[in-house]
Write a structure and sequence with these properties.
Two copies of one chain form a homodimer. Chain A is mainly alpha-helical. The first copy, chain A, is built from seven helices and three strands. In chain A, a hairpin with a 6-residue loop joins strand 2 and strand 3. Chain A binds a DNA duplex through helix 4. Chains A, B: InterPro entries: HTH-GbsR_regulator, MJ1563, WH-like_DNA-bd_sf, WH_DNA-bd_sf.
Chain lengths: 167, 167
DNA sequence: ATAATCTTTCAATATTTTTTGAAAGTTCGG
DNA sequence: CCGAACTTTCAAAAAATATTGAAAGATTAT
C-alpha cells in the first residue's frame, strides 16, 4: 500500500466511525486529515484534499474548534488561518468525553431527575416508574463521574500505578 | 407532573439521546418504553404507545434483540410475541459496550493496523504517518481493552473495593 | 478610504436515513 | 392441508441531515 492510499483509507475510516458516533462525516474526516498532517493546513488545503466546499470546510472546522480538538494557528507573513489537531491522544479523549458530558449527559440527567420526581404514591405504576428512573439517574450519574475520575487518576501517583496494573 | 407526562418526557429524551449516539430515534424510544414498562409489551402495544408503523416496530425490536438488550417472551395461551428490556443497568452497559466494540472498534483497529503497516522508510512523510497511526492504534486498543477490564473488575474482590474508593 | 484576501453565513439543493404499509412469509390449531 | 394470527421484508415516500456556493462580513495592506 502506498502512502496516499493509506492516508485516504484512514480518512475514510475515521469519517465512517464518526457518523456511527453521531459526529458528521466531514467533521471526522477533517479531523483525521489534520491528525496525520505534520504541519498546519489552511482551509484551502482541507477543501482540496477532501474535495468539499468552502462553506462546509468553514463550518466543520469551526465545530472542531468548538470541541476544543482543533486549533487555529497563524503563520507570520501569511494572511490565511491554519489549523492543527490536538495530537496528544489522552488530551483528545478527555476533551471529547467532557464535551459529550456537557452537551448530552448533563441535560439528560436533568430530565431524569425531573421525571423521577413525580409523586410515587399516586399509583403502583407511578411507584415503579419512579423506582426505575431513579436507578437510571444514579447509574448515569455514576458513569458520568467516571470521566472526571479517570482524569484525576492519570494525575496522581497511585492512580498511574493502578492503570499499569490494569494493563 | 403526571405519570403520563413524565413517561412521555422520558421516552422523548431517551430517543433524542439515542440519535446523538448513532442509534436511531425509534429504537431508543422503544427501548425507553420497555425500560419503564413493568410487564412485557406486544408489538401492538409498542405501535400504539409510540404511534409507529408495524414495519418500524418490527425492525427496531429486531435490532434491539440483536444488541442483546431486549428479549422476546412467550405467554402461554398467547400467540403474539412479547418483549422486555434488560433492566440490570450494569448488564445493559456491558452489552452495549461489547456490541459497539465488536461492530465499530474492532473493524477500525483492523484498518489502523493496515494503514500503519506501510513502509515507513520510503519518505519522511511516510515515517510520520506510520508513527501517528501506530500511536492511534495503541490508544484505541488500550481503550477497547478497558471495557473488558471493567467487567473483570466488577467480578473480583479487589476490583470492587477499588471501584468504591473511586466513589 | 479602497482594494485585496480570506472567512462566515444561510437559503437552496442534494444526500442519507428513517418510516410506512402492503405483500410475502411463518407458525400453529383444527 | 387450510386458514387465522401474527411477523418480516422491502420498495416507495417522507423526514432529517449535510453540502454547496454565492453574497455578506471581516481584516489587513496600501
Amino acid at each position: 500500500m502506498q502512502l496516499d492510499e493509506a492516508k485516504n483509507k484512514f480518512i475514510q475510516t475515521w469519517g465512517a466511525l464518526g457518523s456511527q458516533w453521531g459526529i458528521n462525516k466531514t467533521m471526522a474526516q477533517i479531523h483525521a486529515l489534520l491528525i496525520v498532517s505534520n504541519n498546519p493546513l489552511s482551509m484551502e488545503d482541507v477543501m482540496e484534499e477532501l474535495i468539499i466546499s468552502r462553506g462546509n470546510a468553514s463550518m466543520n472546522l469551526r465545530a472542531l474548534m468548538d470541541w476544543g480538538i482543533v486549533y487555529k494557528e497563524y503563520k507570520t507573513g501569511e494572511r490565511k488561518d491554519f489549523f492543527t489537531a490536538e495530537k496528544d491522544l489522552d488530551e483528545l479523549a478527555v476533551k471529547i468525553a467532557k464535551e459529550r458530558s456537557r452537551r448530552e449527559i448533563k441535560p439528560a440527567l436533568k430530565i431524569l431527575k425531573e421525571v423521577s420526581s413525580i409523586d410515587a404514591k399516586t399509583s403502583l405504576e407511578a411507584g415503579q416508574f419512579v423506582n426505575q428512573t431513579k436507578k437510571l439517574y444514579d447509574f448515569v450519574l455514576k458513569a458520568d463521574n467516571m470521566i472526571d475520575k479517570v482524569t484525576e487518576i492519570k494525575d496522581n501517583w497511585v492512580g498511574r500505578l493502578l492503570m499499569k496494573v490494569m494493563k
